[in-house]
Structures are given as C-alpha cells and as structure tokens.
Known about the structure:
Helix 1 crosses helix 12 (220-234), helix 2 (30-41) crosses helix 14 (272-279) and helix 9 (180-196) packs across helix 12 (220-234). The protein has helices at residues 2-26, 30-41, 47-50, 53-83, 87-110, 113-126, 130-133, 162-171, 180-196, 199-204, 209-218, 220-234, 240-260, 272-279, and strands spanning 137-139, 149-152.
Amino acid sequence: MSERVKEVAVQEADRIKILTKDAARSGAYLYPIRGIFYFFSHRALWKPLTAKLVPTLSLGLGVTTFMFVFTYLPQAAAMAFTSGPLAAVSAALLVLSESSTIFTMLSKTLLIEDALIDTFDGVLMTKGTTDLVSSGRQIKAGNSPMAKMGKILKSPIARFSPNALIRYFLYLPLNFIPVVGTVLFVILQGRRAGPAAHTRYFQLKEWNSAQKEKHIEENKGAYTSFGIAAVLLELVPIASILFAFTNTVGAALWAADMEKGDVNEHGTSPHLREQAKKAE
C-alpha cells in the first residue's frame, strides 16, 4: 500500500512539474500585469469599479474584522507547532489570505458581477471585437466603445456556490507545510481560477461543455499560469477588489488576442513580453 501511495505521489509531482514548465513557457502570467497597466491607462474602464467602491470596501472591512476576531487565535495556536515563534505572523498572513478570498468570492457574487461583465466587454470593445460582444449584450450608438454598451443579454457568472469555498478550505491545510505547501496551494487555486477568468468569453463564443473542455485542456499550462498570477494578486487584502477588475481586463485582453488569432502554440500572443515591457 505504501509503495502505491509513493508511486501516485511521484506521478502527481511529475505532472505538476510538467504543468509548471508549460505555464512558465506560455507567458500567460503577464496578462494580469498587462491588465493593470491597461486599466489605469483607460479611464473609461474605471466607471464600473468606482460605482461599486463604497459597498465593496465596507464588505471587505466587515469580513476581515470577523475573521480576525473569530479565527486568528485558533489558527495561531495550531501554527505554533509548525511555525514556532513565527506562528503569530504566519497566522495573521493566513487570516488575511482567507479574508481576502472570502471577500472576493462574496463581492463578485453579490456586488460586482455586472460590473466585471461590463469591464470584460468594454475591453473587448476597445480591442475591436464588437461582433463577439454583440452576442451577449445590446450594442447602441455612442462616441466611445464603453458608451456603445447596452443591456446585458446573457450573464455568465454563476451565483454563489459553496463548492469553490469548500475547495479553498480543503486546500488550506497545505499552508501548514512550509514553502512547498503554500506553492502547491497557489498552483491548485490557479488551475481553477485560470479557466474561470474566461467564463464570459466562452459564453460569448457560445461554446458547449465539450468545446470549452477541449480548449482548456489544449491551453492548460497557459490557463494555470494566468490563474496563479491572478490568485496571487487577489490575495492582497483590500486591494483584491481592484485586482479583480485588473485581472478581468487582463483576461479580456487575452480573449481579444485569441479572437484575432494572434496567439502562438502556447495559446498566448507572441508579442506578449514586448507589450508588457512597453507598458512598464
């Protein structure tokens, strides 16, 4: 039995190693970075965020306060066995991470769902893929791409499901393993977050489940790369709401590259690194 467990562990380690190499080669982790610069250089994209800023910040403060009051001490006590004198700091960082994740999930579901769709569609409009956007929302007359966006016809982001939150807390104990555990935790979260970032794109393309799964499998490394970068950004307390929008911008920029056929064998733009350098 122990040999079988060891064999499975080795196979899983090899699979993660290959996936990590593919993810690094794809360069898709640069799209969230591009998203930050693109967001701040296009003021029209700020409107969906600013309209929801006060309620989302209030939610973030409430979630963070609740988590520190009720979960900090138990986790600090548990981490004393693995982190020793650093348990207090490690527990604080872990509670901040947990708070940020819960806050992001709740805000995306309850407060900013339509705002994120507006942001995604707005970027596609600015990149000249209006025909694609028109399959999911009305397009009206206007003097700018954002002004042309009408009523949303299809809303792809699922209402709150406990599955993602349950999965998060199932993976959470990995953080008790120094360094390696945290890396595995982020990779596993990234594998889910990458494809999720293109939920709107898949819907606008009107793909069925088989088509989506085929596309994701063909670009598994790239999606993991994007997801890891996006997860790391959204783990930043309070600022996670801002990064939720910039990650959406990055995902839309990637979708625009795919739609225009400006991608290489890794599923990303061959000019991605050059564009990132110019943005900086």
